[in-house]
Amino acid sequence: MNLADLTTIGLGGPARAFVRAGTDDELIDAVATADASGEPVLIVGGGSNLVIADAGFDGTVVQVATRGLSRDGEPGTVTVAAGEDWDEVVARTLAEGLAGLECLSGIPGRAGATPIQNVGAYGQEVSDTITAVRTYDRLAGQIEIFPNGRCGFGYRTSVFKHDDARRHVVLSVTFRLAEQSAGLPLRYAELASALGVAPGDQVASTQVRSAVIELRRRKGMVIDSTDPDTRSAGSFFVNPVLDGAALAAVQAAAGTPVPRFDAGDGLVKVPAAWLIERAGFGKGYTLGNGARISAKHTLALVNSGSATTEGLLALARQIRDGVRDVFGVSLTPEPVLVGVAL
Ligand SMILES: Cc1cc2nc3c(=O)[nH]c(=O)nc-3n(C[C@H](O)[C@H](O)[C@H](O)COP(=O)(O)OP(=O)(O)OC[C@H]3O[C@@H](n4cnc5c(N)ncnc54)[C@H](O)[C@@H]3O)c2cc1C
């Protein structure tokens, strides 16, 4: 199995072994068997947040292909198998009159990966609505359920992203959604403006979904085989969170007001795309090695067809170093890097 075929950016060499797990039992069995023999394991969902080495993965790759969405229990509660396509989950909950995931429309990947980096967009994060994450604990060899408060959710992070050797395999995720056709109050100014309303207003959740998908398409952020700008791993860098001193340094270097969002505790989140552009890396920028910045969104690095992982990382390093030299800010990658480092 060539791992380039499993990732949205189309990069990565071969896997030593490959298992497609269609049930929880198959998933647990594949992981436990590999663990018992000391074989490295890489769990893959939709491959939309992965950058894998050109040398591939010297171990077993387990693709999560479990299915199921059920609505038992409390009103508005939905439990989704890890292998369900995320955007189909969003569409289905909205069709069933449940609000809370509408701003997360059009994000690629599988449901089981959403708690890993606390997927978010346009003012919503899955941590707002997740009540529990059911996992297989590879160390204890048993099922463990994490209520929301134990998931360690933060901006693009959770305990699952950082736990030792990827200890927990997500089996299913439970969400508590609002039983209403109106979307939740809009938090993101760009989205509210696209809908012709003010932040804080509410409009039909299906309308919110259409507006989000339209905004995302314009930025190349909806996977589309006819759009070469979507052959990416999404945003390559997370937006840096800065304290007052770091913000003042950026402000002084830029000589112009810096766009920012409140991140609580006196911190602000600054758009990485803005820093990258101001550091001299515009849309379409390339080192000529097949990797380039998307023509639609400065934050996405794209494989134009002939890129290698090393070529992509060379571009990412140049951008990271350029932003650090100009603004003193260290950008960190958002995708999970496998067998490589920035
Ligand atoms: C065009 C594009 C747009 C994007 N837009 C956004 C966005 O707006 N917001 C956002 O937050 N992200 C975005 N992303 C990133 C990505 O879509 C999300 O992180 C998504 O949740 C990844 O899902 P996946 O199934 O593809 O995970 P994968 O890429 O397959 O895996 C990602 C990580 O999660 C682990 N993992 C996957 N499934 C499991 C499981 N069941 N149990 C344990 N570990 C698991 C993998 O081992 C890996 O470490 C975007 C990506 C692309 C390509």
Q: What is the H-and-E element order?
A: EHEEEEEHEEEEEHEEHHEEHEEHEEHE
Strand content: 15-25%
What kind of oligomer do you see?
single chain
Shape from CA axes? Answer: globular
Termini separation (Å)? 25 Å
Query: Can you count the beta strands?
Result: 20
Task: Give the low-pLDDT segments.
Answer: none
Major beta sheet summary? 5 strands, antiparallel
Mean pLDDT: 96
Number of helices: 8
Task: Describe what you observe in this structure.
This protein is globular. The chain contains 8 helices and 20 strands. The strands form 7 sheets. The protein has a 5-stranded antiparallel sheet with strand order 5-6-12-10-11. A 3-stranded parallel sheet has the order 1-4-2, covered by helices on one side. Strands 14-19-18 form a 3-stranded antiparallel sheet, with helices on one face. It is α+β, with helices and mostly antiparallel strands. It starts with 14 loop residues before the first strand and ends with a strand. Flavin-adenine dinucleotide (FAD) binds next to β2, β8, β12 and β14. The site of flavin-adenine dinucleotide has 33 residues, from β2, β8, β12 and β14.
Question: In summary, what is this structure?
Answer:
By secondary structure, the chain is an alpha+beta fold. The protein has 8 helices and 20 strands.
